[in-house]
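Appendix B. Chain record.
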Amino acid sequence: MGERARILVVDDDEGIRTTLTAILEDEGYKVDTAESGKEAILKSNAGFYNLALIDVRLLDMQGTELLTRIKDTVPRMRKIIITGYPTVHNAIDAVNRNADAYMLKPFDIGKLLFVIKDQLRKQKDEIKFSQDRITEYIETRVKELNTSNGRNKSE
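Structure tokens predicted for this chain:
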């Protein structure tokens, strides 16, 4: 991924959206925001994001519900639940719905940036693994076809 990573910030609190946008843009990320789950779903259907920061409490749905409703992308969008209302239930629900991380508000900005970078690195590793698997498949298939063509000519 030579270009800047794209991050979607989903939070009904305008102050948090504005603050996170400023911090993340200063770090070199392209940032888009959504104030509701419905808006996040529309944006994820229309464009690609490497990572989403999703508040657990949105006006129209729970952030944990949004985890399963947001569009799956290739490479898979990394999803981080953020909450000012941590509960064991929310944490378990987030894990069960494939959240990649769970962060508490108020944020430790250093830790948040570390988690974002770590998730983007994991995404990059997944892309590399997939590319390596595709390359192996193609090389093996070419060898099979060449061997098969060689037999056909000699028969």
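Further analysis of this model is presented in Appendix C.
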